[in-house]
Amino acid sequence: MKRNNLYTPPYSDETRREAISRVASGEPKRSVSISLNLAKHTVGIWTSDIRRHVNVSEELKQKAIDLIKSGEPKKKVSLKLGISRSTITRWTSDIVLKTNYSAETVNKARERAKSGVSKKQIAREFGVSLGTIKNWTSDIKIANRFNEDEKNLAKRLTEEGNAKGTVAKELGMSKSTVERLAGHINNNSHDITIRRALVLRVRNGESLAAVARELNVSSNCYYRWEAQFNDVQDIPSEASIEEIHRLIEGGIALKDIASQHKISLQQLRVWKRIREGKEAVIRQFSEEERSAAVYRIIAGEKIATVAKDVGAETTTVRLWLRQAVESGVVIKPVTLSKSDDYEFSWIEKDYPSAKEWREYIANWFARESRGVGSKLTALKKFVRFVHENCTMKSPSEFLSRKTQNPDFFELFCSEIKDGFKVNNIIYNFLNSVLLENYSDEDDGHWTVTPLFKNPLQLRSSDNSTDLSESVREVLPYSYILELRKMLAEGPDFCDWQFAQNALGFETIKGRNCAKDWFPVTPEQIDRNDPDCVWRLRERNSKSPVLEMWSPVRWVLALTKLQVPARTGQLRMSDSGESDDWRYENGKFVPNTSALAKKYPKKTWQMGIFRRKKVKEDDYVSILYFNTNKTHDSQKSGSDKGQECPWPQLESYTENPYYWLEKLRNWQEKYNPVNERTPWTKIPASRSIGPKSQKQAMSYAPSCFLFRTPETPKHAHLPIGSGVLDVAWQRLMKAFEEKLENEESKHPDGSKILLLNPKNQRTFFPPHGLRVSLITSMVIDGEMPPELMMKIVGHSRLIMTLYYTKPGAIHLQNLLFEANKRAEEKKEASTIRFLKDGQIRDVEKNIVFNAASWASVISEDPTMRNPVGWQMLHDGICFAGGNTSMLDGDSKLPGCHNGGALISEARKEYGPVPGGPRNCGRCRWKATGLYHLPALIATVNNQLYHLHSAQEIAVAKSFVISDLKKERAACDNSNTPFLHAKMLKDAERLYDNKMVKISDLSLNVAANVKIVDRLIALSENSPKEFALVTAGDNYTARSVMEDTNSELLQLAGICSDVEIYPDLDPGTAVFRRSQLLDAALENSGRPPIFLRMEEKQQLRWGNAFMAQLSKLTNSMDAVAGLRKVVSVIDSGQSLSEVLGIELDSALQISQNGSQITIRSFDGKNHYAS
């Protein structure tokens, strides 16, 4: 029982008297202690002067003596006869039992002792008492059993306050050994109050073990400290204690009270502190604690912070500092101004919530050499912005893509001269932080991961957003196809004309700039090999040189265009020349090469072509990369790497297996190796970054596929990290020229630029191809993300979903002149066109989900019946909205047969993927140009639900991870895991959300594909099918812009739902109402919207946002909306920042009727 007062007795005088009386009457002390809930030790102290002997019969006594003489242990006899062991010992003290042990046993025990085994262990092994072993080995001294380091360690641990028994146990020594080594060390550092409390409470009858455990001291301390307090009186009674407290409160001097009641002055001070609500024991600080506190202050921490951490008064810590300065131990710190403090230590003092930014800021600022004054000013503003305005203050949360931050420019830059410069300085600083700390590496090139973003935008001098610096990350898939054809111009290397001449020419006079040509001898040339490309190059004043072309870097470029692998994975790939099985023309055969025979004893399968067993005697060919980034960190040899189940495609331009096999054959013939190369012999310029010897040894030796014969000294090593970049730059330049010659332009007539005109560097580096291919396959190819995860080597599905970027849908072709008549005209004109249109016209103006539109409506216009069609908000359903079979007729159009073709012979179709009413993936749906705004609204709605599901899935994945860690810890400690049901429920919810995420992502992909097809049709569409958006100008523009603001996204979703009631708002309406009510409260108004019904929240919330936008900027409602959202996101008052009278904003004109929202007397009133 732990108490603040260390001295107050836990037992009443009445309990003590009862215990003494019962023991004196003959009741056993154990029985008394149990019945009164006391420790036996306590009862023993109270009754130490009471001696009680039980009369034992002579017969029982003689029986005990006989058993002892026969060799029975005294403890066993005591338990057997019910007599205490002390009584048995008193009766048999004159009996000495000697056991005769053989000389062999004695000698064995002595040998064990000489070998260093402890005597206690020997006694246990031989079943002999420890005293007997000591007698046998008394002359054996093991002088050097422990070395000097072990002895010094024992001394040091004892000096640090550890109990000698604990030290002995940890170091494997006997307690006597530790006592001999550290006997001079007396750990008497405990406070006098603790020592006095231990002694007095034990004297008063409490259990020694219980008191020692409560005070966190060793029970042995009692016997060392007991003599120190012989002059201290017993604890007074409770009545006396109360009397003492009355005297203290009456102002009597403590010294007089102590003298009167014969109590120590220290005890009185403790009672007084307890009475005042303070700690019973006054904290005593060691010199080490004081010094540590002083040095923390010298390092820049505030005195108040240090005092709070160490548990001392501020005045006390300030005294320590003054004493340290006066004694010369430390020098009083000089406070630097912020302008002189290049370590930015002021951040932790003045803006502690932003302290995690200090290291990032200091590192970035140290590298800057120009304009440091303006950069320092900008950084001060940014730190204050994070501290005062941001709810997510840590760098990782602030830069997270899902975080909605206030507008830094609006809050700190818009009202000052050259505010755009301050904004751009912080933009560049955040870009540096992202690249250094939140980026993904591909062969030394860093790209910011899709989980994070720079929340700022570059600004021009007129404070407008400067979009000229935007980076295009995703190369269009149509361009990827064209680039493949540019490289692989034919089935053999001799057909690769562009690649052969990209870095040089067939005949060059002067300096050779073609790095992919290397000198050879005539014997190395095989004129009959279509993959052997050679030339005779003329030189000035020198004889011609015979050269061969190396296709290595170009095959690497082509493979990057075909497979979503990292550049480093491809560069370090093994050719498989020493594998047990050899890949030939799509099959595997035993490898009989000399290189394979050189390593006959061990199964080896490290090549890029892997023979994968799928079932008994059935194998398939897959790609294998012998590295896989961070997944390799805890693995070695063949356990490293990643399998990529890439298909073998028919076209040689698409099939990586075809060209990788050709390159392996070319290497074997023209650049052979005779052994595997250890990774320890690879220089950093040829590896995937610098590696320690231990790291390099963890990789299996390799026969590298992309080795470079053009560098003779390193012909066996993989291609360097920068070689691909040069070849890729030439390829992109040539492709840009090709597009210009073909007069391919943007829809607005501008030139398509693949290279930056300023520095001629491509906007699409090869390291971004991985993102391009993943995006193309998931979005355009409708590849399920969970399968894509396995191909690209991601460990989590969520990352793959974030990695996939559909990108900005270019909606600038949409016209902003929205009118209601065009919306109403849409359906009638589309039906008329579909009913009467000819095949060519229908194909040019309507997009069908079906692979062949003739499978859903008749090619003959006279056979089409629009009566059976149903109008959707974003298209037309040719199945009339039917969701199931009627009268068992499976041929009747409906959701049950709106999926893929499953039987060509019977023309049988499967159900719609994702279930009934999933129209975006149903073949019975068609979409006209008039439906584009509604379809965009559908995509935005689906993206909102997808994002919500992702957040839930991520949260559940963290819960699962924590619970699995807890379960593993329980398994290791052999304790029951109590949250099995919670883990099972979390896994079930996680799986459900992952299924939903998969369906939603495929739905988004399907609808985005339709949007792209509609935009492609828009240029040549008839006038009556011109693109027209629905709703007012504010609604039209808000759905066409990407946004990082949650409120701006919700505003678009809610507006769409009002225009297109078929859309499911989910929790969007409720969430927007929360944000709007919070905005009203920040402006001094009571909440309104959450007390409405959901329909009222939707309608009046939309009208309220539109009215706020109009009042903010009557000329441009979209700009007004962004301003309003920025203020609400920052948590500021709408009235104060925008100067809006909310009374006028709450006068909402909608549909020709006046709606007034008022709140007074704590009640809300609505009238229309």
Give an overview of the whole structure.
By secondary structure, the chain is an alpha+beta fold. Among the domains are: 287-326; 346-437, no CATH class; 478-774, no CATH class; 820-1024, no CATH class; 1032-1167, no CATH class. 47% of the residues lie in helices and 7% in strands. The chain contains 49 helices and 19 strands. The strands form 7 sheets. It has a 4-stranded antiparallel beta sheet with strand order 11-16-13-12, with helices on both faces. Strands 3-5-4 form a 3-stranded antiparallel beta sheet, with no helix packed on it. Strand 17 (1147-1150) and strand 18 form a beta hairpin. The chain is extended, with a radius of gyration of 43 Å. Pfam families: Integrase_2.
Gist?
Helix content is 47%, strand content 7%. A four-stranded antiparallel β-sheet has the order 11-16-13-12, with helices on both faces. Strand 18 (1153-1160) and strand 19 (1163-1167) form a beta hairpin.
